[in-house]
Amino acid sequence: MNAGSIRLYSYWRSSAAYRVRIALNLKGLPHEIVPVHLARDGGEQHKPPFSDLNPQELVPVLLHGNRILRQSMAIMEYLDETWPTPPLMPATARDRQRVRALAQVIACDVHPLNNLRVLQFFENTWNVPQAEREAWVRHWIQVGFEALETTLCDNPSTGAFCDGEVPSMADCCLVPQVYNAGRFGVDMAPYRTIRRINEACLALEAFDAARPENQPDAPAGS
Amino acid sequence: MNAGSIRLYSYWRSSAAYRVRIALNLKGLPHEIVPVHLARDGGEQHKPPFSDLNPQELVPVLLHGNRILRQSMAIMEYLDETWPTPPLMPATARDRQRVRALAQVIACDVHPLNNLRVLQFFENTWNVPQAEREAWVRHWIQVGFEALETTLCDNPSTGAFCDGEVPSMADCCLVPQVYNAGRFGVDMAPYRTIRRINEACLALEAFDAARPENQPDAPAGS
Fold this sequence. Notes:
Two copies of one chain form a homodimer.
Chain A: E1 6-10, H1 15-27, E2 32-35, H2 50-53, E3 61-64, E4 67-70, H3 72-82, H4 93-107, H5 111-114, H6 116-124, H7 130-153, H8 169-183, H9 192-202, H10 205-210
Parallel strand pairs in A: 1-2
Antiparallel strand pairs in A: 1-3, 3-4
Family (chains A, B): Belongs to the GST superfamily. Zeta family.
Domain GST N-terminal (chains A, B): 4-87
GO biological process, one term (chains A, B): L-phenylalanine catabolic process
């Protein structure tokens, strides 16, 4: 691996990996995608070589040369600091706070409640039926999206995207969460601003190329 | 309220509010604590005036003059950008990435699974018995701490604190999570590095003053 080369350990349907794929595309950074299959054989994330890269056994991991970078939001901030143009973060402390807070509504308070390991715990340890597991997922997406919709539509900083007229880290988090909402049948009708921003994002090549169905490890017909 | 004054909406036992209390103390910033009682009358966070400040109905919220700031990690980064000395974040992009990633192991992948609204959902919607709810809390703390312990003890950047010899945003997240672990009876014996860092932090006045039991809204004898 070259000193400056970028390798992203990803899974096509992981929404945390999807965020970083978007960020890499927005920056125009050449990179290699290394698929980690989260379901096959009990999950490749739980075995070497991947588990040596991340003791949390979660994707994504990004290698930049020999640097091992974990946690999707921390990776995106690193990409933005290392390659500042085009920016993923706004210019002022106030606006950066807002973008980080919007991203964290999703990346702290929605997604971790609904990811694979949590749903596996419910299925295997508590024997929660599938219908209730899916209702749980929808519940937390709806709670998060209601707050996010209010926050976005009340604020003059919201533009074509979450913050103004260029995509930011907040949009990198929003679009994968809307994808998840679709998988679980969340009614998106109440979230007009979220839908509008999601559509504006997906019209961009950087977002489109990062979609789950456009990944090398996506099953045929997905 | 003066233009530059700081007001923190907090609850003594909220670990997300505890993080920001530490950060404010480390920066030496004068501030007013406004208690929001998360249990009384169904939770003051669900009613105006607090719910007008945060549609997520979660603490903490920080007011800086008339700016409304939400999400504990985003608030801490704002404090650090606005008052850079002493720093909460290291000097290089690589080290900042590491500190953010350590913070996010806790603030994304442990704490949101265990906070009040999730435990209330289990109790009220799924009728999960208390013993199982508490086992759930311990499970995710243990999963997170195992990964964190490995990450910390394997890395030469770890010093007296999570990153080197001064407290950072990662320590502001770690100490409240160790407090939570104590509340729920997690056996801390396996986490030698976490215990050592937690003790180093709590020896500092900034951390000590932020402890739940030292808050104005802590019940007598807590």
